[in-house]
Amino acid sequence: MAHSDAIADGSGRALRPLRISYRALRNGALWLLVFTGSMAKIEPSPYEVMFLVAVAVFLATGLSFHRALAPLVITLAAFNFGGVLALAPYLDFQPGVTFTLISIYMAATAIFFGCVMLDDTQARLDLIKRAYVWSGVLVALLGAIGYFASGELHDLFTRYDRATGSFKDPNVLGPFLVAPIVWLSDELVRGAQRRMRVRERVGWLVRRIVPLTIMMIGLFLTFSRGAWGVAAGAVVLCIALRFLVDSDARQRRRIVLMSLVGLAGLVAMLAVALSLQSVREVFEIRASLNQDYDAGELGRFGAQLRSIPMLLERPFGFGPLRFHIEVGNEDPHNVYVNAFASYGWIGGLAYFALIACTLYVGWRLALRPGAYRALAIPVWSALFLHILQGMQIDTDHWRHLYLLFGLIWGLAAASDRAERRVAEPHLRASV
After folding, report:
1. Span 27-49, mean pLDDT?
2. pTM surpassing 0.85?
3. Which of 77, 108, 147, 423 has the greatest number of CB atoms lying within 10 Å of its CB?
4. What ranges do the domains of the chain cover?
């Protein structure tokens, strides 16, 4: 007699036990991890909890590693080793201890996302994109609601009359929205599948235009000049790369046409936003390239210049979060200066090595024909502009930056593995 897993309830009906596959567990944990990336006001945040859950789930059900990820692991390990050495004289400085532990944790997230990308690559990246877009829409809505609200709601989701949403700083909310904005803009420029019916095509457009519009509003209300520049640069770079690598003349025409339509829509949105006096006043202040806290000997740029000769004499830097103590300013506002200030010479050189290796890997993925070039182009466009943004803000504790690091290295490793699998039969045949 055949064995059956069905059991009977009181009425005699057959019931089957609920079964959840390993893949469903992994996908659920990964989706929740990425979605909670925007929740930074709570400590410990849901993201930190979900990272431990996701790691446990993947380790229990299968997590791959590839030697192409070795440079990422080595440079991040050296970066944080330098941070531990820089911390050693200041173990009684609790903010510095916390800072160093967060740095190690951030590095672990990048390595984890790199490993995640090795298997079921496209499906997992699609899942990450969906979770990130939902998270971006939520945090942008919170920022917009808080900006136009009053009282406690305004204070909760804004800072200095700039939207923060569920972040603590508008200068982090803005960059967080860049990647999903690039993803959706890229999909709109490339267009829907040609075989779609009109009704399906309209639904496809709505599912992209609505969340993109919400996130663009949230990005604008952060009044973060750096985030505006990064978003614009990343979208332009992504479109330019698509145009460069696509040999289909019809698709190229579509890219140009949709780019012009998108630009017109952006100008219209900006005109509507600036028609509101409260928005226009803050915009006029923030649009200035030269802010009071930037210029002068006591400004951020002056502090950076003063710190360089001091750092050349200190192999272990100033110690984590001690830049303002040693130099007399708040923070370096430059991740490359901060790499030497908070992580010492070892950490600073390791961070430069990480960036150099990532630049090579990212541009190689985007420009060279490969299995995952189409997936890599929007990811690399967002990451490359974030790397440039590091020259004007400290980015070494941004969760989404380490997510992008992990994705680009994971795509590179997956591409390398795919190429080797294709090459192996040819090599065996030639032998």
Report:
1. 92
2. yes
3. 147
4. 20-416
